[in-house]
Amino acid sequence: MIDPTNVLPYRVTDRNLALELVRVTEAAAIASDRWTGRGLKNDADGAAVQAMRAAFDTVAIDGVVTIGEGEMDEAPMLYIGEKVGSGGPAMDIAVDPLEGTNLCAKSLPNAITVVALAERGKFLHAPDIYMEKIVVGPDLPDDVVNLDSSIEENLRNLAKAKNRDVSDLVLCTLDRERHEELIARARQAGARVQLLSDGDVAAAIATCIDGGGVDLYAGSGGAPEGVLAAAAIRCMNGQMQGRLLFEDDAQRERAREMADGKDPTRLLGLHDMAAGHVLFSATGVTTGSLLRGVERISPTRAKTHSIVMRSKSGTVRYIESHHDFSLKTNRPS
């Protein structure tokens, strides 16, 4: 018989933490929503950062930011190495207070606020450089795609695993000049290509969601966003590989300093980027394929839509929250 005194406290704390994360991403989403469509991406991001940082003060963790807004001398808060939380289990924190600042500024789909937690030392320490990524969803053979394989081979293998034609597959990637060859070759192979202006975390997650409309995410984007995506993909039992890309020796040296003696150019699997037990939360700012955006019901009331996940249980929850600001003091959630 299981002794509940050995299990219950951890489980309750862990489950409560998952819900506390939703409050953090909700606060950032509500704050940045006030800047939606105003063309001021830095103001929107700044509002999200301040709200998220304040919300962390009430979360019962001993947290250290490992993926954040930049180095200490580049960001006033949520910088790499900053300690947050009100005390509790030692956790690493990965944040993107506003994933898709341009999307928010232009009122385009898929702007979200994102937080992930892992046990101390379990997140890849990724500098703010590019990462090459490839992502597919769950229930597929191991290594069905590989970052070192051609896009044609990956599409063929994925189509075979899904018992579909390549022409049925949708590849999603950022609409960037550096992806022109990838896009042309995928189309020549017969796949359809969905282009993003910004925001590849939501696109990576879409590969793992029924009705997400994406079979394969590929291409290069931010390394910090890669770690956040890896945390979500871990929770959803998908597959992901990554590799850091360097523009100069300074970036390579910075990555080497953060790599704990490992080769910074190595092929990264999911557990290299987000190991151990992982929690993930995101709240929609603008409505997109993953989440609905913040809905302003009245000057004092709003509705938010979030997703929260735990790798330990594989549970994915969608949470709709109704906020009455007239009853709140100091913070919006």
Automatic annotation (TrEMBL):
It holds the Pfam family FBPase_glpX. Signal peptide: none annotated. Belongs to the FBPase class 2 family. This is Fructose-1,6-bisphosphatase. GO terms for cellular component: cytosol. It comes from the Bacteria. Substrate binds at residues 99-101, 130, 176-178, 198-200, 222. GO terms for molecular function: fructose 1,6-bisphosphate 1-phosphatase activity; manganese ion binding. It catalyses: beta-D-fructose 1,6-bisphosphate + H2O = beta-D-fructose 6-phosphate + phosphate. InterPro entries: FBPase_class-2/SBPase. The keyword Manganese applies. Mn(2+) 2 binds at residues 96, 99, 225. CDD domains: FBPase_glpX. Mn(2+) 1 binds at residues 45, 69. The lineage of its organism: Bacteria, Pseudomonadati, Pseudomonadota, Alphaproteobacteria, Acetobacterales. One of its GO terms (biological process) is glycerol metabolic process. Keywords: Carbohydrate metabolism, Hydrolase, Manganese, Metal-binding. Transmembrane segments: none annotated. Its cofactor is Mn(2+). It comes from Gluconobacter cerinus. The keyword Manganese applies.
